[in-house]
Design goal:
The structure is a single chain. By secondary structure, the protein is α/β, with parallel strands linked by helices. The chain folds into two domains: about 100 residues, Immunoglobulin-like (Sandwich); about 300 residues, Rossmann fold. The protein is built from ten helices and 18 strands. The longest helix has 18 residues. It is globular, with a radius of gyration of 23 Å.
């Protein structure tokens, strides 16, 4: 009984450590704007009418004579906007449709005592038929094959430093680094290793957007799995948080747009190569079983999960949550594109469209062969579901998609539990 309880506790903590980004379920608010599509799965056929019921509640009761603003239309491109509408009984209804596969969104803001409370719901119209707009460059494979080959000419030169104060009876925690794509360019991360001698499978955790420190994960090794969490910015991941805040507001502000018109100098080149080199690092570990490696992440990390699997056939399993960087050219084709929304408000400069095709998740998704777990929600305003389906629909490998319609750029605990169980069982062959 004691062992069972311990195992359940370890699994619960592991679930937290495998949570995919810094985003979490939103806190509840005094006033709630509830929008409900009339299909339970929020999914419709093209040209079918979706009906949305709206309720504005306070203490669970309809709020009378409440003022609302609202927008309706295709996600990220609403075609109806109105302000100052009075709802006498706190309810109203909307309807909408799509003539092509995509997503239709209703967003409502209730204004109460000078504060705005938001609610939204998004209907999907034949989302499994959404196709990407981004082009697949003819030399895509040779470009990345050559880039990886050049990077591998450099020795990994690993540096592995034990952090005693973060170790446990079952896990050793190390701050690590290894050489990346050019001399002096390094990838840093936290390596969590089972203390018990043996050969273990491994999980590579790739990061969401931003710059932050990492602490390591003593709970995954307790399950008999090596875990490597990497940063992507070429700096140690165990510094004071103020260092990362300063970089995020300074030298690395909007790093995703650095040299986005030059495929050989774009910021993400070193990042994508760093993910492959992280797999190289895992394979260099004597404690690794030499075969079973998975990759997981959310948002930018969801993108890097698909990218790593697309570039490196050694990846055996993958779990991607609300991937960013999908179908950047959507906005150039009158529909939503993926984060970071390169062309939502601006037209591309010379070379940008061509360069970004080499970095778009869609083109890596076409090359994925590893079985994968994917999950997101229809209400994601950071990574529009249109963009994510653009990548998912071109994946030919074994895949399963877990949709939690109400979620935005966050996950339910139940959603994390399903993903955690799937990933650990898959990588351990249970």
């Amino acid at each position: 009984m004691k062992n069972t309880i311990t195992r359940l506790l370890l699994q619960s903590v592991l679930l937290i450590t495998l949570s995919i980004t810094a985003f979490s379920q939103p806190a509840t608010t005094l006033v709630k704007v509830i929008i409900s599509p009339d299909h339970q799965d929020w999914t419709y056929k093209v040209n079918e009418k979706a009906k949305f019921s709206v309720q504005v509640l306070k203490y669970g009761n309809l709020l009378e004579n409440v003022t609302i603003d609202y927008e309706t239309g295709p996600e990220k491109q609403p075609d109806i906007k109105k302000e100052g509408v009075i709802l006498k009984n706190g309810t109203t209804e909307f309807s909408g449709t799509m003539k092509v596969p995509g997503f239709y969104r209703v967003s409502v803001w209730a204004i109460v005592d000078g504060k705005r409370y938001e609610g939204l719901a998004t209907a999907g119209f034949d989302p499994e038929k959404i196709q990407p707009t981004v082009k697949d460059p003819n030399d895509f494979d040779s470009f990345w094959k050559n880039a990886i080959a050049e990077a591998r000419k450099l020795d990994l030169d690993p540096v592995i430093t034990l952090i005693p104060e973060q170790c446990t009876s079952e896990a050793n925690i190390y701050h690590i680094s290894f050489q990346n794509e050019v001399v002096g360019s390094r990838i840093y991360g936290m390596l969590s290793m089972p203390k018990k001698p043996g050969k273990y499978p491994a999980i590579l955790r790739v990061p969401g957007a931003g710059i932050r420190p990492y602490n390591g994960d003593p709970w995954t090794p307790a399950q008999g799995v090596i875990k490597l969490e990497i940063g992507i910015h070429g700096i140690p991941v165990n510094l004071d948080k103020q260092v990362y805040d300063n970089l995020g507001r300074g030298a690395l502000s909007s790093y995703w747009s650095i040299h986005m018109n030059d495929r050989d100098a774009h910021y993400y080149k070193r990042v994508y190569l760093g993910c492959v080199r992280a797999v190289d690092f895992i394979f260099s570990l004597p404690e690794f079983n030499g075969s079973d490696v998975a990759v997981t992440g959310g948002s930018q990390g969801g993108a890097l999960t698909i990218i790593t699997a697309g570039l490196d056939k050694r990846i055996k399993k993958m779990a991607a949550f609300y991937p960013a960087l999908c179908d950047y050219s959507g906005y150039l084709n009158n529909r939503a594109g993926g984060w970071p929304h390169y062309f939502r408000n601006t037209q591309p400069l010379p070379g940008e469209v061509e360069t970004l095709a080499y970095y778009d998740v869609v083109n890596f998704a076409r090359r994925v062969t590893a079985p994968g777990f994917y999950s997101w929600g229809y209400n994601d305003v950071t990574c529009p579901p249109t963009s994510m389906y653009s990548a998912y629909n071109v994946i030919n490998a074994a895949k399963e998609l877990h949709i939690f319609q109400e979620t935005g750029h966050w996950t339910f605990p139940e959603q994390n539990q399903i993903a955690n169980d799937w990933l650990v069982k898959q990588i351990k062959g249970e």
